[in-house]
Amino acid sequence: FAHLPRIRTTQRSLQFLSAGLREESRKFDAAAALADAFPRVTPAWPPLGRDQYIEAHTLMSGYLLSTQGDRMAMANSIEGRFPYLDHRVIEFACRLPPSSKLSGMREKHILKQAVAPWVPDQIRARVKQPYRSPDSQSFFAAGQPHPLVVEMLDAGRVRDAGYFDPLAVARLTEKCRSGKAIGFGDNMAFIGILSTMTLHATFIAAGTT
User: Fold this and answer.
1) Helices 4-11 and 184-199 meet at what angle, rounded to 10?
2) Is pTM beyond 0.85 here?
3) What is the pLDDT of residues 137-180, one digit of tens each?
4) 40 in a structural domain
5) H or E segment at 75?
6) In this structure, are 106 and 160 located in the same domain?
7) Is the dihedral of CA 161, 164, 7, 26 positive or negative?
8) Could you give the number of structural domains in the chain?
9) Sequence-ordered list of residues with C-beta below 8 angstroms from that of 164, at least 6 positions apart, any chain
10) Average pLDDT along the chain
11) Does some domain include residue 152?
């Protein structure tokens, strides 16, 4: 269950694909592929344990620690130290019962209890405030798109690349430009499209490797 909302949100981005790729995408079952990739994960495991195992082997190692950790640190000659990733901490956490990790919808339950003598109640009890990387609004100022957006999402360029539907991309870009309420799905789609077109221009259209 924990991963289905993310899969469904991501699937909304398929509407921006070109007709050919959209048809190909219908042959792919993301949830089934995820289950097949982790044969070790069985119903005998607690639901939270299953979720944590999959999260650690997909989102954390393949995305968070790479794009938001190692790559940024190495690009700027910084050595990151992450105490909660120490193998002894991880091994201890894996031995804890689910109730120590999650109390209802209260995350990091045992950690918040452990720091109670030093951390004020209003901080331990406040609603989680996740940080996010810059999203679509970072590419628009006073209703004007960044030059990169104008260049990479040009209708002709989008059509020639063959990944996306130019009309759908144009509608999404206009929605972002107008400042209308942009949801998580739209943000993810816009950044994904812009990133794909930039990679295409840099490594495929330019003939570089």
Assistant:
1) 60
2) no
3) 889 988 899 999 999 999 999 999 999 999 999 999 999 998 77
4) no
5) helix 71-75
6) no
7) negative
8) 2
9) 16, 17, 18, 158, 193, 196, 197
10) 88
11) yes
The pLDDT tens digits of the residues spanning 25-52 come to 888 888 788 888 888 888 888 888 888 8
For residue 13, being part of any structural domain is answered with no
Note whether residue 45 is domain-resident.
Answer: no
Domain that holds residue 116: 96-128
- Which residues lie closer than 8 Å to 179 by C-beta, 6 or more apart? 140, 143
| Assigned token pair, 127 | 């609603």
Same domain, 140 and 173: yes
Which element (helix H / strand E) includes 112?
A: helix 109-114
Same domain, 195 and 151: yes
* Beta carbons of 16 and 165 less than 8 angstroms apart: yes
CB 48 within 8 A of CB 98: yes
- pLDDT of amino acid 199: 95
Residue 138 CA to its chain's centroid (Å): 17
> Tell me: the pLDDT tens digits for 188-204?
899 999 999 999 999 99
* Structure-token pair, residue 194: 């812009």
Do 120 and 144 lie in one domain? The reply is no
